């Protein structure tokens, strides 16, 4: 193999190894760079949830509502602890304009388990399908959530939260004031 081709192959292998080991895509536009584009107070990037029953819900279609995009998996203990809390909160505040979209990082082989758990939740759930969530970047840490205000602007960037798990106090501090305001 010529040295240029060998050098190129080594660089590509190194990029792939770093992407897998560090959660970074170094080739082209990286997911990290996209996630770094998230700015509280700016327009939230669009994201589409395809629910377990095949319904498509696009976050931009929810303008005028407070939206929580939450990422979880059935193998994530903190996720399984916070989802019932989110479900109860959604049931309580849905009529005030709250929407929660639940993106499971489980694979298709865990679909039965996801369906079983999702049946206990009051908000729509779907499989993310891969770890990339558009401009929210590569979902490498869960649970992680993003909150969008009624005006379509990002209110809470889950990547910036040191303790991203939802609690009653955190919901009251971040989401409840948004539900009390109009666009």
Summarize the structure.
Helix content is about 35%, strand content about 15%. With about 180 residues, it is of the alpha/beta class.
What does this molecule look like?
The protein is of the alpha/beta class and 183 residues long. The protein has helices at 3-22, 31-36, 77-93, 111-118, 168-174, 176-180, and strands at 48-50, 56-58, 66-72, 98-104, 125-127, 144-148, 154-157. The strands form 2 sheets. A 5-stranded mixed β-sheet has the order 5-4-3-6-7, covered by helices on one side. A two-stranded antiparallel ribbon has the order 1-2. The radius of gyration is 18 Å and the shape is globular. Mean pLDDT is 84; it is low at 5-33.
Q: What is the mean pLDDT?
A: 84
Per DSSP, the total helix count is: 6
Major pleated sheet: 5 strands, mixed
Q: pLDDT under 50 segments (min length 5)?
A: 5-33
- Overall body shape: globular
Distance, first to last CA: 62 Å
Helical coverage, percent range: 25-40%
Fraction in beta strands: 15-25%
Spatial arrangement of strands, main beta sheet? 5-4-3-6-7
Please compute the radius of gyration using only Cα atoms.
18 Å
Structural class: alpha/beta
SSE string = HHEEEHEHEEEHH
List keywords for this structure.
single chain; 183 residues; alpha/beta; 5-stranded mixed beta sheet; two-stranded antiparallel ribbon; 6 helices; 7 strands; 34% helix
């Amino acid at each position: 193999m010529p040295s240029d081709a060998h050098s190129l192959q080594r660089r590509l292998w190194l990029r792939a190894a770093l992407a897998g080991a560090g959660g970074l895509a170094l080739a082209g536009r990286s997911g990290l760079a996209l996630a770094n584009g998230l700015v509280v107070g700016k327009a939230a990037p669009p994201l589409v949830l395809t629910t377990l029953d095949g319904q498509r819900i696009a976050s931009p279609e929810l303008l005028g509502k407070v939206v929580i995009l939450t990422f979880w998996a059935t193998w994530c203990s903190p996720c399984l602890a916070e989802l019932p809390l989110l479900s109860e909160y959604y049931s309580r505040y849905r009529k005030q304009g709250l929407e929660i979209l639940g993106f499971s990082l489980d694979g298709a082989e865990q679909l039965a388990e996801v369906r079983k758990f999702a049946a206990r939740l009051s908000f729509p759930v779907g499989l993310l399908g891969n770890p990339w969530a558009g401009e929210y970047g590569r979902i490498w840490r869960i649970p992680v959530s993003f909150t969008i205000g009624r005006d379509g602007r990002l209110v809470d960037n889950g990547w910036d939260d040191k303790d991203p798990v939802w609690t009653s106090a955190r919901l009251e501090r971040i989401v409840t004031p948004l539900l009390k305001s109009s666009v």
